[in-house]
Amino acid sequence: MNEKSGSGACRLLIVDDHAGVRTALQRMLSLVPDVQVVGVAESGEEAIALAAAQRPTVVLMDVEMPGIGGVEATRRLKSLLPDLRVIGYSSDDRAEPMRAAGAAAFVRKGDPPERLLEAIRADGQ
User: Fold this and answer.
1) Looking at residue 21, what is its pLDDT?
2) On the chain, which terminus has fewer CB atoms closer than 10 Å, C or N?
3) What is the pTM assigned to this prediction?
């Protein structure tokens, strides 16, 4: 977990079922001064529990995961925390189902890191 804090910091929860992706995202995003990684989850179920406990402002949500996938987890999170911004994250174009579930944005895993940061920061903090 990242120990940075600050009133302007985006509180981010990273959700992906691949350990390497989670680790890489956490390492990269922990270097960004205005992003505070408050949790890392490997499933939709874990994401829902962590979001309830940590109250992130943004969730980076993998779309395809075993169990509760990103689309259903997004629906549940938006029901639980209506002000939460969810960003869909997938190697395939799954923007439509994620937006229908309540995601505010969608980023492909192959997009440049700047695109991901733009989506994270777009919450008007």
Assistant:
1) 94
2) N
3) 0.90
> Which whole-number Å values give the CA distances from 92 to 39, 71, 108, 110, in the listed order?
24, 14, 7, 9
Half-sphere exposure of 15 (CA within 13 A, CB side): 31
Structure tokens at 64: 């395809």
Q: What stretches in the chain show pLDDT beneath 50?
A: 1-6, 124-125
> How many degrees, rounded to 5, is the angle at CA 116 between CA 5 and CA 63?
105
- 57 vs 13: CA distance, rounded Å: 8
Cα–Cα dist 45/109, whole Å: 22
Number of alpha carbons in the 13 Å side-chain half-sphere of residue 85: 16
Answer whether 2's CB lies under 8 Å from 49's CB.
no
Residue 125: CB atoms within 10 A of its CB come to 14
Q: How far apart are CA 111 and CA 76, in angstroms?
A: 27
Q: Sign of the C-alpha dihedral, residues 55, 28, 99, 92?
A: negative
Cβ proximity of 44 and 16 under 8 Å: no
Six token digits for residue 70: 């990103």
